[in-house]
């Protein structure tokens, strides 16, 4: 910029030297705080580079102006010092404004805080370094390098063309200033419409190149049936030409940290490169095709991506973008409420699938010792338990040696005697102290009862989850409609409550924090501007320019079909800081 518009190579060295020094200071601060170099932290420096160099360029250009207009014989150093003193304080405060504008990012929590925290730190370090260097190093470098012949602005052909284009434009705007302000206000007012059309989501969806299909069926499904269903689903998925490979499992993995029941499937779908897809097929349309082909009775489909699913499940326990948690004191009543919510959610526009956990769906053998009968025969509860353990679970009685291999030999009752309550009561024998044997039914009741297949607790409360997958709707808009539908159709008894979770939980938390911190940040920026100008008029001019700076971003989001998200909010915050700096520069 200095070379093209000022035609002075040595002036460019001022900016060229100042920029790496500022970046090195930012890296030193990163090392002191233990921040690593990653995409987000380096992205903060990349965002700051443009604003960092602005101060140096403005000071260099102002020094050239003063040298052009200076009287002969006046010392060059004195002219440069006057030029730096004229714009230095304002530039220092403008860089501080950009630094302070990222204050809301530091207050973010959870996933969003960990994601954008490094970016905010490095950008703040870089801008703070730039503010310091703009009033220390840059003036010194200008004294060293800005010397020799200074070409007047009007002798540069590029400047002449730009001035020729800009002068009538600015002249017309100033002559019709009332009309210009009214048009700007009208544009700002019209921008309310696209702003209201924007949906909301936590973060834009990242295409991982892999899909995760997580269907859920009714509890109590046998292992054989689960394996058969899993193989059928994999064959259907493999038939799509965009699919490279499919890997699925039913139930839990071989680890104690995976409590998934047999009725929950997880299928990883590795996709081919986009260039090998059918023409016109997108990720959303491919998921819709697969979902349509994978419709089985009693199976509720859910689609996500592996990394996203793991993050969501670890943070909230919900594996879908949206989840509803029912809290209460009675599992049977909680399941009834969750099923009612499931029915309501399926009728909400944009619902792809809704599945409420079936917690009361398992059958169990309930063996209750009769203590009076036990006392009559001189038996204890432990005697009954030992007999049941040996008959039902089996007991290792010996070891067989096959060459160098050893195998334990366990004995237990055959399957048909272990699954029928009457057979168990009749055939399982309990040894008495006298050496006689009694049928288990003589000293205990054996019944098959229905009970909970799984019990979830959260903060000491019983919980039942409803998993919700959506299509064609933004996160915030869908949840608002769903909340209204549930409020109208579901009446919660005393002692029961519901909570929304999943990615909506992150979105709600970030919105609440930004609504609190952004006004405080604007107040701090207002104070900094007032300390710079010492007049309310100029301060309000800069502050009132901020909404107009966001107009283009709002229209572009609407045109591209993007939703408002935490990432977009971070972008708007950065834009507001740059707009404030531009306003300060224009006023000086």
Automatic annotation (TrEMBL):
Q: Does the keyword NADP apply?
A: no
Supply the Pfam families for this chain.
Answer: ACR_tran (PF00873)
What keywords tag this UniProt record?
Membrane, Transmembrane, Transmembrane helix
Q: In its UniProt entry, what is this protein called? A: Cation transporter
Q: Which PANTHER family match?
A: CATION EFFLUX SYSTEM PROTEIN CUSA (PTHR32063:SF19), PTHR32063
An example GO CC term for this entry is: plasma membrane
Which residue spans traverse the membrane? 12-33, 39-60, 80-105, 125-148, 169-193, 516-533, 540-560, 566-587
């Amino acid at each position: 910029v200095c070379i093209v518009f000022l035609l002075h190579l040595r002036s460019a060295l001022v900016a060229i030297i100042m920029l790496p020094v500022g970046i090195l200071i930012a890296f030193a601060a990163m090392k002191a705080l233990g921040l690593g170099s990653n995409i987000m932290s380096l992205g903060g420096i990349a965002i700051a580079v443009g604003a960092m160099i602005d101060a140096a360029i403005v000071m260099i250009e102002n020094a050239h102006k003063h040298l052009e207009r200076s009287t002969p014989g006046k010392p060059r150093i004195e002219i440069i010092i006057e030029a730096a003193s004229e714009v230095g304080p304002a530039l220092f405060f403008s860089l501080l404004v950009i630094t302070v504008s990222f204050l809301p990012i530091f207050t973010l929590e959870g996933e969003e805080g960990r994601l954008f925290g490094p970016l905010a730190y490095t950008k703040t370090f870089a801008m703070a370094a730039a503010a310091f260097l703009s009033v220390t190093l840059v003036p010194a470098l200008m004294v060293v390098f800005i010397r020799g012949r200074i070409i007047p602005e009007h002798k540069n052909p590029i400047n002449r063309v730009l001035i020729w284009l800009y002068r009538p434009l600015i002249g017309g705007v100033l002559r019709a200033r009332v009309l210009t302000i009214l048009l700007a206000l009208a544009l700002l007012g019209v921008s309310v419409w696209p702003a209201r059309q924007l949906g909301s989501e936590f973060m834009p969806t990242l295409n991982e190149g892999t899909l995760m299909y997580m269907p859920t069926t009714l509890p109590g499904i046998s292992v054989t049936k689960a394996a058969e269903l899993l193989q059928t689903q994999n064959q259907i998925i493999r038939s799509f030409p965009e699919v490279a490979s499919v890997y699925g499992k039913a139930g839990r993995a071989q680890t104690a940290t995976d409590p998934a029941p047999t009725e929950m499937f997880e299928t990883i779908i590795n996709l081919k490169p986009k260039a090998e897809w059918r023409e016109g097929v997108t990720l959303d349309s491919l998921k819709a095709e697969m979902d349509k082909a994978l419709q089985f009775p009693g199976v509720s489909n859910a689609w996500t991506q592996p990394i996203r699913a793991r993050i969501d499940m670890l943070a909230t326990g919900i594996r879908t973008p949206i989840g509803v948690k029912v809290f209460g004191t009675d599992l049977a009543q909680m399941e009834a409420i969750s099923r009612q919510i499931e029915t309501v959610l399926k009728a909400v526009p944009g619902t792809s699938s809704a599945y409420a956990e079936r917690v009361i769906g398992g059958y169990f053998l309930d063996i209750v010792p009769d203590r009076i009968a036990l006392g009559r025969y001189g038996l204890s509860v432990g005697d009954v338990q030992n007999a049941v353990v040996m008959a039902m679970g089996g007991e290792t009685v010996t070891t067989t040696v096959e060459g160098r291999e050893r195998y334990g030999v366990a004995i237990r009752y055959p399957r048909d005697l272990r699954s029928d309550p009457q057979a168990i009561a009749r055939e399982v024998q309990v040894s008495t102290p006298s050496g006689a044997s009694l049928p288990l039914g003589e000293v205990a009741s054996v019944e098959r009862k229905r009970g909970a297949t799984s019990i979830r607790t959260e903060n000491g409360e019983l919980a039942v989850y409803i998993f919700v997958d959506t299509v064609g709707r933004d996160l915030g808009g869908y949840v608002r409609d769903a909340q209204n539908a549930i409020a109208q159709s579901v009446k919660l008894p005393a002692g029961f409550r519901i909570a929304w979770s999943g990615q909506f939980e992150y979105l709600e938390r970030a919105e609440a924090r930004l609504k609190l911190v952004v006004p405080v940040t604007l107040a701090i920026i207002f104070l900094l501007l007032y300390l710079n100008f010492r007049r309310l008029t100029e301060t309000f001019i800069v502050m009132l320019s901020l909404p107009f700076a966001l107009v283009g971003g709002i229209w572009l989001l609407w045109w591209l079909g993007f939703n408002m998200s935490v990432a977009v909010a971070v972008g708007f915050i950065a834009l507001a800081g740059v707009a404030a700096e531009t306003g300060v520069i224009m006023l000086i």
